[in-house]
Amino acid sequence: MKAIRWLLKLVLAMITLPLILAVWLIKWFVVFLHHCSAWTFYLLGSVVLATAVLSFLMQQSQGIEALQMLIGGFVIFMIPQVVGGVVVGRTKDQILSERKDLYIGQYRIILSADTASEVRQMLSQKRR
């Protein structure tokens, strides 16, 4: 009975392996397409933003026209961010804040021996 169960699991794993591989390949292809489209939007938005700033500086457009181009470039630039947030449903900050063991940017700089002794005193007071 044990051997039959083990053999059945092995056959089932062999049958589902191509399906798992196909799903994995499709997932990475979709991720690749998403990043390509995001870079396209970033480049297009950057070109529009640069065009707005340069046309205003070279006096080729009035202030309102340059502002409209700036807003349009910003909207184009932000489309991948908004769509990614809507699809995932959570922002990157929310995902990072859920991890309790992840601390970003917490560095302690001790400037002098006095500061070090003050830190030790504060730590010893916390322990009491």
What does this structure look like?
The chain is mostly helical and 128 residues long. It has four helices and no strands. Helix 1 runs antiparallel to helix 2. About 9% of the residues have low confidence.
The structure class reads mainly alpha
> Please, how many helices?
4
Give the N-to-C terminal Cα separation: 62 Å
E-strand count: 0
User: Helix proportion of residues, in percent?
Assistant: over 70%
Strand content: under 5%
Radius of gyration: 28 Å
User: Which stretches are poorly predicted, pLDDT < 50 over at least 5 residues?
Assistant: 101-111
**Mean pLDDT score:** 76
Major pleated sheet: none
Order of helices and strands: HHHH
Task: Label the overall shape.
Answer: flat
Please give the structural blueprint.
Layout: H1 2-57, H2 63-88, H3 92-98, H4 113-127
Helix pairs in contact: 1-2
Main attributes?
4 helices; single chain; flat; 128 residues; mainly alpha; 81% helix
What's a concise summary of this model?
This protein has helices at 2-57, 63-88, 92-98, 113-127. It has 128 residues and is mostly helical. 81% of the residues lie in helices and 0% in strands.
